[in-house]
Amino acid sequence: xxxxxxxxxTVRSDSTSxxxxxxxxxxxxxxxxxxxxxHATISDTVxxxxxxxxxxxxxxxxxxxxxxxxxxxxxxxxxxxxxxxxTTTIAKGTxxxxxxxxxxxxxxxxxxTLTVQARTRALDASVIARSEASAAGADSDATAELxxxxxxxxxxxxxxxxxxxxxxxxxxxxxxxxxAATATAITNGLGGDTDPEGHNTLRADxxxxxxxxxxxxxxxxxxxxxxxxxxxxxxxxVKEGALIDFGSEAGTSSLTLNQTIEFDATVVMLGAPxxxxxxxxxxxxxxxxxxxxxxxxxxxxxDDIANTGALSGSIVFRINPVSYVRTVDxxxxxxxxxxxxxxxxxxxxxxxTGYESVTIANASALDLHINAIDVINRSGNFSSSxxxxxxxxxxxxxxxxxxxxxxxxxxxxxxxxxxxxxxxxANPYGSSLIRSGxxxxxxxxxxxxxxxxxxxxxxxGGAVGTREAPIRIDSNRFSASxxxxxxxxxxxxxxxxxxxxxxxxxxxxTAAGSILDANAAAGADISAPxxxxxxxxxxxxxxxxxxxxxxxxxxxxxxxxxDVIITDVLGAMGIAxxxxxxxxxxLRVLDHAAGSDPVGEDMLLGxxxxxxxxxxxxxxxxxxxxxxxxxxxxxxxxxxxxxxxxGDADQNIGAEVDLQGVIRATSVSITGxxxxxxxxxxGTA
Length: 685
Prior knowledge:
This protein has no helices and 56 strands. By secondary structure, the protein is mainly beta.
């Protein structure tokens, strides 16, 4: 099941049970024997189960709870008189199988605040037996028996994911416990046998149990297993005997209160509240959290965002001390009473040092200026955030560590203004999206850069960077789209391209290392009229995974220290200049079936085109034709291999080789396909 709401949501099971039993007897015969019995039993199970695969989400408060109230009253009375009288009363009450349970399977449950609780609101049990005999010789017996068991359990299983953005409470409670057994035996006369007997057993187990493999994410965590701080428990035996009486009191009492937390889950403590700034189309602020800004002319200037100070939030485990009132009003009655408060487990506490998210949205036409952003809190101060208020905690051994988390950073200018990066944006372990609806994404100067595990830049009606001032990034994955061109510089390591598309402008990508295909999809990684690639310290593509492009114009510029391995997946490939300092060059144009692509899958070199691998080999492969104009140059330190009509997807359609430029290599090989291909080497040197 999947349930979601922007407001608050409660999943609740609620039960109130009440049992009464009354018996009353009596007479006044000369010889009178009277008996009264009353019995009552309550067995009440209340459960709230959220099973595996369920998803519950609330924008406000989310509550998952089971609630129970139980009341039992048993009264047995008898009153008899005569020359001889014998009275017996028996009152028995039983509360068993009475449980309050919340059981969370491998489900996802989320809210701004999240409360998961099993709560016994009240348990009141009373058993009264009263027997009175009035005679010269009388026997009065009264027996009161009460057996009570109450459990409250909150269980979180392996695979559960609980998220309370601001607060998460996991609890089991028994708010009120009251148990009373009273036996009264009265004999009025010269001689008698007066015997009150009572038994009262009360056991209450309160448990919170979170398995290893369960994950709790919040800024403040409270885990409680609390029994009523002052439960009442009484056994009263009243004996009012005859002048000469041979009776006695007899009874037993037992009170057991167990409060336990078994906790092995992983707790992910989120960092400071996520910065958020939302400005509407009229320039009004609709949301502002943990972030500052000012307006300067036609600009919205966002202040520096720094995640500083001690790591926020708290983790509290609490079992309140119990001071039970156990009253046994009867001489010689045996009894016992005990309570325990124990926490056990080996959980992991992960303090997230990064913001959960950073959101900046500008729907106005003003330009949006982004200054420095650092999403990571580097203080490392978290030990004071953990409190364990439990009497017995020797078996509790948490592991505490910090993790950076993956911040979701989103900057969106949807109103037509530009996004201007003025400084360094540091989100090294998260994902970053910068979007400009109709404007550009630009850098103010060389100090501006975006560090992020994943970078996505979108300028639906403008450009991303310029050739003179590219957007400087440090990423592990990169994608971009624009109407008017893309210019990006990967300042450290490789540029792993998931997808880059420009409708009308060129795409210029530069990497300190290599430029590589970041996905295994068959489509183009880079699509633009003109493509400029520069791998300063590495390669472009690999033999196992060539960089796939769709250069729709006549201009592919590619340079690398190592190999250059590029495949054009659609239409022709126009080459301006492709060079490798120390590697091989492999350029391919894929063939398609006749009619599937109106443009031939040709490889075209203009009059100034250059393909140069000074220390390696060159392999050129065209699905259809290969044409090199006079003035073009193909130069290899090793061999040059040229193949046309490769793949032969358009059967019976031959290819043409038109070589008018210069080829320099240790050897040259030119091959065709299975169709009638034409070779023309005119003025080729």
